[in-house]
């Protein structure tokens, strides 16, 4: 319990530093964007390569992964039904479902896993699941809705170009086939990769400054619905499935519940912007769940941390 709370405090401090940085405008207008791109395109791929490449592959595909699948799929289905009942557009259903169930397993998940769960490897399977399966599926749906045709090959090609995917796949191949890697290489990739955690937290803190939410009345129900599913329902589903269906141990239950309570991923805003659909729904859901995740994660820690 003390270790988890200490980790939560460390993460909170880094986010606070980022918020102060954004408020004082030390890095200028484009500071957050630059930090985010460096973390995403440069540091995170090396971090995941190092984590997955040096991990026992059996630890990456444990019972924690099916819990994440069940929790996310359940939330997606619930929001789609919610959207259909309210006669929302297909775009609103997809973006809202992503807002409700697509977690920020990279920017926030990796630091949370490191400081609260004991290692970034806890977040790695969720990142892979989302980037390899959920994201392409959502993009195929949005692409088909906008263009009227299904262009699976374009979406798959875009997915394979993702630097996070490339780093993760290289790491997995090294782990699966037991490829010998010199210690010097691990030290070099680790040096660059471990810069991702502080950069992600600082960039995240900067993004919290100056955003106004719920201005669009037509989107309020969708935003509130998606945010509630993300912060309350998804962690409860993950906890219940892990505890009463799979009967996992206390630390595993704590881990999957924490991962399910992570805020909505920034990728959802990127997808909404790219397809020019329900951008405010994505943005406001990300903002609300980002702030809301703080007390939720603290409550989970107090209740479930072994």
Describe how the helices and strands are arranged:
Layout: H1 2-24, H2 31-53, H3 64-85, H4 90-101, H5 109-117, H6 124-147, H7 152-160, H8 163-176, H9 183-193, H10 196-207, H11 220-245, H12 250-260, H13 266-274, H14 279-304
Helix pairs in contact: 1-5, 1-10, 2-8, 2-9, 2-10, 3-4, 3-11, 3-12, 4-6, 4-11, 4-14, 5-12, 6-7, 11-12, 11-14, 12-14, 13-14
How helical, in percent, are the residues?
Answer: over 70%
**Shape summary:** globular
Strand content: under 5%
Output the CATH topology.
Answer: Na+/H+ antiporter like fold
Largest sheet: none
CATH class bucket: Mainly Alpha
Strand tally: 0
**SSE order, one letter for each helix or strand:** HHHHHHHHHHHHHH
Structural Rg: 19 Å
- How far apart the termini lie comes to 6 Å
Into how many domains do the coordinates divide?
1
Number of helices: 14
What's the architecture, going by CATH?
Up-down Bundle
Helix/strand-derived class? mainly alpha
Q: What average pLDDT do the residues reach?
A: 84
Please mark out the parts with pLDDT under 50 across 5 or more consecutive residues, or reply none: none
What would you say this structure looks like, in words?
- The structure is a single chain.
- The protein is mainly α and 306 residues long.
- The protein has one domain: Na+/H+ antiporter like fold (Up-down Bundle).
- It has helices at 2-24, 31-53, 64-85, 90-101, 109-117, 124-147, 152-160, 163-176, 183-193, 196-207, 220-245, 250-260, 266-274, 279-304.
- Helix 12 runs antiparallel to helix 14.
- It is globular.
- The mean pLDDT is 84.
């Amino acid at each position: 319990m003390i270790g988890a709370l200490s980790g939560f405090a460390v993460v909170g401090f880094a986010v606070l530093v980022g918020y102060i940085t954004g408020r004082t405008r030390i890095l200028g207008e484009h500071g957050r964007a630059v930090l985010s791109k460096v973390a995403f395109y440069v540091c995170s791929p090396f971090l995941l390569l190092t984590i997955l490449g040096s991990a026992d592959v059996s630890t990456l595909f444990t019972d924690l992964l099916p819990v994440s699948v069940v929790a996310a799929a359940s939330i997606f289905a619930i929001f789609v039904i919610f959207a259909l009942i309210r006669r929302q557009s297909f775009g609103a259903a997809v973006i809202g479902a992503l807002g409700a169930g697509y977690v920020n397993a990279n920017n926030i998940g990796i630091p949370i896993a490191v400081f609260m769960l004991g290692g970034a490897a806890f977040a790695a399977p969720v990142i892979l699941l989302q980037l390899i399966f959920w994201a392409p599926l959502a993009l195929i749906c949005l692409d088909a809705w906008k263009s009227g045709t299904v262009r699976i090959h374009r979406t798959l090609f875009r997915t394979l170009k993702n630097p996070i995917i490339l780093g993760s796949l290289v790491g997995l191949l090294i782990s699966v086939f037991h490829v010998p890697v010199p210690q010097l290489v691990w030290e070099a990739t680790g040096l660059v990769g471990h810069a991702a955690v502080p950069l992600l937290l600082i960039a995240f803190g900067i993004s919290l400054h100056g955003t106004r939410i719920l201005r669009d009345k037509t989107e309020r129900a969708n935003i509130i619905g998606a945010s509630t599913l993300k912060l309350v329902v998804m962690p409860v589903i993950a906890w219940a499935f892990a505890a009463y269906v799979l009967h996992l141990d206390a630390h595993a239950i704590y881990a999957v519940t924490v991962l399910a309570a992570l805020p909505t991923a920034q990728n959802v805003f990127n997808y909404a912007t790219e397809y020019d659909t329900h951008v405010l729904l994505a943005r406001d859901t990300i903002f609300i769940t980002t702030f809301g995740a703080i007390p939720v994660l603290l409550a989970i820690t107090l209740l479930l941390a072994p």
